[in-house]
Design brief:
The structure is a homodimer. Chain A is α/β, with parallel strands linked by helices. Chain A has nine helices and eight strands. Chains A and B meet through helix 1, helix 5, strand 7 and helix 9 of A and helix 1, helix 5, strand 7 and helix 9 of B.
Chain lengths: ~210, ~210
């Protein structure tokens, strides 16, 4: 990434969520120190991150919430709705499918996939569902950019391979397995509940010794 | 944390998962460079992280998989099963409840909570479920250490407050809302699917400009 670092992207995404909440709460302006407190960084770093957006200044009263939020949305392409699919329609996958139907705006779940064809017939959803072998074809046909992987661990790499074959740009990996992107330019974010529980356990244990 | 940094804890937890997979695949020894490749860091840093465990050496053939795995488990308290609860039994919470019943070993889901008492009566699970106002009492009575927060965003802070009242040690926050631990020594890990989708969108956008 040439002009903006990944940690800065992460922090600006956190900032975006805070600005959404502020705007919903009717807040019009916010200072860099208030923003820093919420993100957990210093006000200097908030201003530095925001300067990456280019041309967003703050008045004496601070940043305009709506203006800063819109600048981040524009810079990061949140204004273009991203079509998303879910692979693996077990309990978690199905929950996400239902959950996602309520989401408006930035992301839209337009397809679900499962290797069990009998299961596809029983799922109650308004989202179209397809057998897993059709993943590459459907991704290309519908222009799906993001995929959420919620298959069993043993099926993770095969399913990821099909997403990548179809030209997916980003994957959220809900399995504990590390997946390979097979040398393609595909971004992966891991969401691993067991892993997070382990980190909490370790923090508690080390804290009790320390 | 006095004797081991949080990034080191994170990496050693990733290492632990890899060692579990290696052991299941029948691998007996592994080198620091192979481990580094899988974690995405250099072999020097792998050795440095492992040295925090104390007294774990590698032979010419590398580290013994089982020995290193067990050393991490012992150091981080993975050998003591942690009792865990889920707050918010909507689609995601219920899916986690079912999912967790299959999990053996390090974590055991022993209670579910929801503020909707009518909902509690309809949930099919072998895990005990209780109304949300009983959270502090049940946590104390059962000795629950970890809580998974899967309530609507507007209910997140109140539910977190109840967990903290009961003396919870760690929280996985599945809501997009930032929660305050009210000055108590409680560790929080955030799992935010929308946030991760946004980061993927931003990475794709910046990559396409860059």
């Amino acid at each position: 990434l040439n002009n903006i670092s990944q940690p800065t992207i992460n922090r600006l995404c956190t900032l975006f969520q805070i600005l959404v909440e502020m705007e919903n709460a009717g807040v019009v302006t916010i200072s860099s120190s208030e923003l820093g407190e919420k993100v957990g960084i210093g006000s200097h770093n908030v201003r530095k991150d925001i300067s990456c957006m280019g041309g967003i200044g703050s008045s004496g009263a601070g940043y305009e919430v709506a203006k800063l939020k819109n600048a981040i949305a524009l810079k990061f392409g949140f204004t273009d709705q991203k079509l998303t699919c879910i692979v693996g329609l077990g309990r978690i996958g199905t929950a996400l499918l239902q959950h996602a139907q309520n989401t408006q705006g930035e992301f839209r779940i337009v397809a679900g996939f499962d290797s069990n064809i009998n299961k596809l017939e029983t799922i109650k959803t308004t989202v179209s569902v397809f057998p897993a072998h059709q993943i590459p074809e459907i991704i290309r046909k519908m222009g799906i950019e993001l995929g959420i992987l919620a298959v069993p661990e043993t099926a993770a790499q095969e399913a990821a391979g099909r997403l990548i074959d179809g030209g997916i740009r980003g994957i959220i990996n809900f399995t504990a397995t590390h997946i390979s992107v097979l040398g393609k330019k595909v971004f992966v974010k891991n969401i691993d509940i067991t892993g997070e529980l382990r980190i909490l356990s370790a923090l508690i244990k080390i804290d009790s010794i320390g």
